[in-house]
Amino acid sequence: MTADVLSALTARARAAAHPAREPCHCGTGAAVLADRPDGVVVRHAGTVAKAHAADTDRGDLAARLAVAAHPRLGGILLPPLGERADDLQGRPVTCWPYGTPVDRETPEAAPWEAVAVLLARLHRTPGSVLPAGLPAMRGPAKAARAVARLRAAGPRPEAAPVLRAWAALPAWARDEAPMPDARTLCHGDLHLGQLVRTRHGAWLLIDIDDLGTGDPAWDLARPAAWFACGLLPPDEWTRFLTAYRRAGGPAVPADADPWPALDVPARALTVQTAALAVAKSAAARRPLDEVETSVIDACARMAARPPELAEECAT
Amino acid sequence: MQCPKCHAPMHTYNRNGVQIEQCSGCRGIFLDYGELESLTRLEGQWSQPAPPPPAGPQAYPSAPAPAWGAPHGGHGGHYGHKRQKSFGHMLFSS
Question: pTM for the full model?
Answer without folding.
Answer: 0.80
